[in-house]
């Protein structure tokens, strides 16, 4: 089986020649192991006993009342390390071990992927280096400490805007220099082929579980799925299982930051144009000359000026509706979910909740009997300092 | 139909009878006027071809020196069009000029329009460091119609299968990356370089130029023993970055390039 390198016109492999052989090696390894019974048995065991899967699908009754549709939360926040990121890092570390790589590198924005990578590197006793923008280190100090505790080295990135984009550049540069010994665990459905496919497949456990769980609870498929989209791995992970189910509405929610017209947002699909960042062709926030622009979001994990190429494709073919929520709407949802359900969501995930909450539920288009699953991609502990700051509270 | 000038680059190498010296400059750095003087100094001090980079916000094949120069040029508002003008001006003075641009800049400019400007400006080739051979076909077609070579890269990590694929698609010359890594000065060159060059030689008659990490005259000499061209970039850009006065940088550049040209492998 050959992995598709493109999603329509999006994707591809736009990287320095030095890396291409490593990408070919990774692709071959993945093709070998994706159906290998031993590989899958080890992955499934770790997913269950280590990561705590399946994660629950929770009927959020008070939220449902508030938003006017029957709303379930897919509780990725309850997975080990507190977010969906562990699904991908477990899969990739098993590949890295089989490829004989002893050194792991990763980039991180909010720090969740960095923590999930440091975690699996510790589990397998591999050396781990995580690149993180200076600005993100400041706003996610809790996760920085967690990574160090897990034995990873956190490398501050000062170039550019000091956020996820720049951390990814630095991780790629490290990989170019150390490609023979090192595996790069990219954190989302971005990057050169085969990463967007490989990460999607490891994340698709979210949607696969959701299908089983909702069938058991409701006896039918959901009417809609809602997930936040930064680079887009939790969204693809939830959607993938349902892309061919035409009756299921798929809604991705981008970060509108200070507003789509403010120039300070992370809505690549809404406001970007076709371009190349980090090895693939996708929607990118860029100026007329092709210089990549800085993204903005109160949620560090959505602060990325591009998006996975498969999302670009799903937008163009009209299969997924891409909406957005502002910083303010996300902060409102962050507080609302905490009070309504006793669940403090990650600020990223709060964007998905915000889509349902907007206008008291009037604008989301779901009826009171409609079953909607929201991806609660991560928990909000990491965000308490930045949320408090944004809300003007000193802690 | 324009007469294809593809082959001009290749001929430059073949007729030299010694390795070509190819210094690199970041276009528009430290400012457009000074950049032109730097390119002039390259030509006056023994450069055979000059390579001019277009600044990009996310240069992922570049190390800290060229990243910083790129960022500095961008913050001065240097546009791709301005760099095309600089490169064309240098070509107009008789220099052989090759551009280096990341693909996103070319796409945003409009690929056809970009290569129109290259043709009109007398640019001989364009190195696109984030386009491996599998992604190069469309660029190559558009460039070739305008008599411009898209310069493909080869790396020590490229398998023999890949080297064959690169050799089959390449034109002009092949840009050989000296060692796995980004651009920037290194204390010593990879001991594997001659073997890598030999491996590629079995696949192609095209000239092979080596870049990334060649920072001293001695290293250039070492590379010149096995390659047809030597590209020096970060070391020269760093001279500009590290000098308070442009004159000091120009003197240092002149000294370095002249020393390279006096090295044994360059005086064959």
List keywords for this structure.
heterodimer, A: 395 residues, alpha/beta, six-stranded mixed β-sheet, four-stranded parallel β-sheet, globular, B: 268 residues, nine-stranded parallel β-sheet, 14% strand, disordered N terminus
Poorly predicted tracts of residues of chain A: none
Helix and strand string of chain A, N-terminal first?
EEHHEHEHEHEHHEHEHHEHEHEEHEHHEH
Please give the domain count of chain B: 1
Query: Quick one: which chains have the greatest interface?
Result: A-B, 36 and 40 residues
Class from secondary-structure proportions of chain A: alpha/beta
The proportion of residues forming helix of chain A, as a percent range, comes to 40-55%
- Taking the alpha carbons of the first and last residues of chain A, their distance comes to 54 Å
Number of helices of chain B: 12
Shape of chain B: globular
Which band does the percent of strand residues of chain B land in? 5-15%
**Helical element count of chain A?**
16
**Biggest sheet overview of chain B:** 9 strands, parallel
Q: Structural class of the helix and strand makeup of chain B?
A: alpha/beta
CATH architecture of chain B: Alpha-Beta Barrel
* Biggest sheet architecture of chain A: 6 strands, mixed
The backbone outline of chain A, from C-alpha atoms, is globular
Strand segment tally of chain B: 9
Oligomerization status of the protein chains: heterodimer
């Amino acid at each position: 089986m050959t992995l598709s390198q493109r999603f329509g016109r999006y994707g591809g492999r736009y990287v320095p020649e030095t890396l291409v052989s490593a990408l070919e090696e990774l692709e071959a390894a993945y093709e070998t192991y994706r159906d290998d019974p031993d590989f899958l048995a080890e992955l499934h065991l770790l997913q269950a006993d280590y990561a705590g899967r399946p994660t629950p699908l929770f009927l959020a009754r008070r939220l449902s009342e508030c938003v006017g549709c029957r709303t379930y939360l897919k509780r990725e926040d309850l997975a080990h390390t507190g977010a969906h990121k562990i699904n991908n890092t477990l899969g990739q570390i098993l590949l890295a071990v089989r490829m004989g790589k002893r050194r792991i590198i990763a980039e991180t924005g909010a720090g969740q992927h960095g923590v999930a990578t440091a975690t699996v590197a510790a589990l397998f006793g591999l050396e781990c280096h995580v690149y993180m923008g200076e600005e993100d280190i400041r706003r996610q100090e809790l996760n920085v400490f967690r990574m160090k505790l897990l034995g990873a080295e956190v490398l501050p990135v000062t170039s550019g805007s000091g956020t996820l984009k720049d951390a990814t550049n630095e991780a790629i540069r490290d990989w170019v220099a150390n490609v023979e010994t090192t595996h790069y665990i990219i954190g989302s459905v971005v990057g050169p082929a085969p990463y967007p496919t490989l990460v999607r497949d490891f994340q698709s456990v979210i949607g696969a579980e959701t299908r089983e769980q909702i069938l058991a609870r409701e006896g039918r498929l959901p009417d809609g799925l809602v997930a936040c989209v930064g680079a887009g791995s939790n969204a693809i992970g939830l959607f993938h299982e349902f892309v061919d189910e035409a009756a299921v509405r798929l809604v991705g929610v981008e970060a509108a930051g200070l507003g789509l017209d403010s120039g300070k947002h992370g809505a690549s699909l809404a406001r970007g144009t076709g371009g190349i960042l980090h090895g693939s062709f996708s929607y990118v926030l860029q100026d007329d000359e092709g210089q990549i622009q800085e993204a903005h979001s109160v949620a560090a994990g959505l602060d990325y000026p591009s998006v996975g190429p498969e999302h670009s494709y799903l937008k163009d073919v009209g299969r997924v509706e891409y909406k957005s929520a502002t910083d303010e709407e996300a902060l409102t949802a962050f507080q609302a979910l905490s009070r309504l359900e006793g669940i403090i969501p990650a600020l990223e995930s709060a964007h998905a909740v915000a889509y349902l909450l907007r206008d008291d539920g009037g604008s989301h288009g779901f009826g009171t009997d409609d079953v909607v699953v929201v991806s609660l991609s991560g928990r909000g502990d990491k965000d308490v300092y930045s949320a408090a700051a944004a809300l003007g509270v000193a802690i | 139909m324009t007469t294809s000038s593809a082959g001009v680059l290749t001929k430059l190498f073949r007729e030299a009878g010694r390795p070509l010296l190819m210094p690199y400059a970041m276009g528009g750095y430290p400012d457009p006027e000074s950049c032109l003087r730097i390119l002039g100094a390259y030509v006056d001090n023994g450069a055979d071809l000059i390579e001019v980079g277009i600044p990009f916000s996310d240069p992922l094949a570049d190390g800290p020196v060229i990243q910083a120069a790129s960022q500095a040029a961008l913050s001065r508002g240097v546009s791709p069009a301005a760099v095309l003008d600089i490169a064309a001006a240098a070509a107009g003075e008789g220099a052989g000029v090759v551009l280096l641009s990341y693909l996103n800049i070319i796409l945003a400019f409009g690929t056809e329009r970009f290569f129109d400007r290259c043709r009109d400006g007398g640019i001989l080739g364009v190195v696109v460091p984030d386009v491996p051979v599998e992604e190069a076909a469309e660029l190559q077609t558009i460039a070739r119609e305008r008599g411009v070579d898209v310069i493909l890269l080869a790396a020590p990590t490229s398998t023999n299968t890949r080297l064959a694929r690169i050799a089959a698609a390449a034109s002009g010359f092949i840009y050989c990356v000296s060692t796995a890594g980004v651009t920037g000065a290194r204390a010593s060159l990879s001991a594997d370089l001659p073997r890598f060059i030999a491996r590629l030689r079995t696949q192609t008659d095209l000239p092979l130029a080596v870049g990334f990490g060649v920072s001293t005259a001695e290293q250039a000499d070492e590379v010149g023993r096995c390659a047809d061209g030597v590209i020096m970039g970060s070391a020269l850009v760093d001279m500009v970055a590290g000098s308070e006065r442009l004159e000091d940088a120009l003197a240092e550049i002149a000294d370095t390039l002249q020393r390279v040209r006096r090295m044994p492998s360059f005086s064959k």
